[in-house]
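Q: Convert this sequence to structure tokens.
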Amino acid sequence: MFEKLMATAVLPASDIDRAKKWWHDVLGRDPVYEDAEGGALFYDVGGTVVMVYRTDFAGTAKNTAFNLMTDDLDRDMTELRTHGVVFHDYDLPGLKTEDGVAVLGDERSAWFSDSEDNIFAIGQVSAEMMQMAMKMRSAAGSS
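A:
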């Protein structure tokens, strides 16, 4: 069972052309494949396939839909801001941001929305966590 299984991330878009432009302009990514009939775009993000598909339900989730891990949060936030990204500020029990950044133990994280109102997280994790994530990705690639 599941010998030939592959998982992808899935993000909704109410306007596929707007989403495609945002992915190009903000994240510097172009689709690796476009399914024009099905209204879907496929991107490679750090070895993970992300499908962005057309639906009227885009932006309705208020939770984190996609997570990015980085080795330098400040560098990447600065770069994202140059492309118009505005980071969310939160003041919730157990989660408070300052200038868009929350400190969560060894991790620093920030959240922003894409053109379709999907919430992205970007976090700088500990070296140990990054190493573990790389091992998991490597192990998945060899399966």
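The mean pLDDT is 91.
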